[in-house]
Amino acid sequence: MNVYVERSDEHKELAFSGSVQELLDTLKINPQTVLVLKNDLLVTEDEALVDSDDVKVITVVSGG
Amino acid sequence: MLDTIERFSLVGARESICVAASGGKDSLALLYILNKHYSVDALSVDEGIAGYRDISLFDLKEFCKKYAVPLKIVSFEDLGAKRLDEQDPDHPCSVCGVLRRKALMKYSRGYDVIATGHNLDDEAQTVLMNLLRNQTHLLARQGPRTPPSEGIAARIKPFYLTPEREVRAYCLLMNITTNFAECPNVVKSFRWKVGEALNDLEVARPGAKLSIVEHLLSQTFVDDHDSVVCTRCGGPASGKLCRACKLVVVQ
């Protein structure tokens, strides 16, 4: 799975399948601070992800 | 947001509206929605932080061009202060906040109201910060509409009950471009620490932020600190000079 984390501007390649919530737990990211896009569509924390998905973790918290 | 405007009577008939806009998600979403329903102008403060404000100002200028919103950009130099980059203060967020508020207050004169993009997260953070600093008199100034005084526009917060995540989601869904830019000073601030703690609390107890702000609304707080007029600028002050003028004079 290709995961882009906006705040750190990082691209990660992960072997992962599970929910958005589980992905955020794995990445140690508080779900209150981000929104998640699966294949460019906004999804909720209970959305299932599979290895072939393209995931973007977008920062919510104001930067200043 | 429109429910909040109605619930708290934030905008009166025929009132002129200035929107405080940084170019971040909150102010662009606020401009987008208000511009659909009212005639608005945008006012932005360039505090002078290289590599940060120039990114959000670019987004703001593009937005205002696209939606034909008149935009005025003022700087700390317009107040007689140095750019924040050149000040290098111990507590940059405090200095920045005081000067930004001063600039917005000064350059929104002539409008009936100035709308800011403060959201539910900002408001819950401010309640906790004031409690943790034992500055409970400041809670009296924290409502969704602060009345006008001596030529100063009333301040309104239409996102008062809107969570930060919903504002960001709205920007994504409406294709409002906001490039991520983080102020290099933000993680040093007390607000940042309080915000992180609140996000942990919200996960443990969903609705915590809203409960804090609704509790504030259910109480009556009195600001019993004397307010006088600043001898330099005529704005509200607690002593001879207001905090902004003290900063400018020291420089």
Q: What strand line-up does the widest sheet of chain B have?
A: 3-2-1-4-6-5
- Describe the sheet with the most strands of chain B: 6 strands, mixed
User: What's the total number of strands of chain B?
Assistant: 8
In terms of structural class, how would the helical and strand content of chain A be classed?
Answer: mainly beta
**Structural class designation of chain B:** alpha/beta
Which chains share the greatest interface?
A-B, 16 and 24 residues
* Annotation field: number of helices of chain B: 10
- Give average pLDDT of chain A, whole number: 93
The end-to-end distance of chain B, rounded to whole angstroms, is: 40 Å
- Helix proportion of residues of chain A, in percent? 10-25%
Proportion of strand residues of chain A: 35-45%
* Termini gap of chain A: 31 Å
List keywords for this structure.
A: 64 residues; mainly beta; five-stranded mixed sheet; two-stranded antiparallel sheet; 1 helix; B: 251 residues; alpha/beta; six-stranded mixed sheet; 10 helices; 11% strand
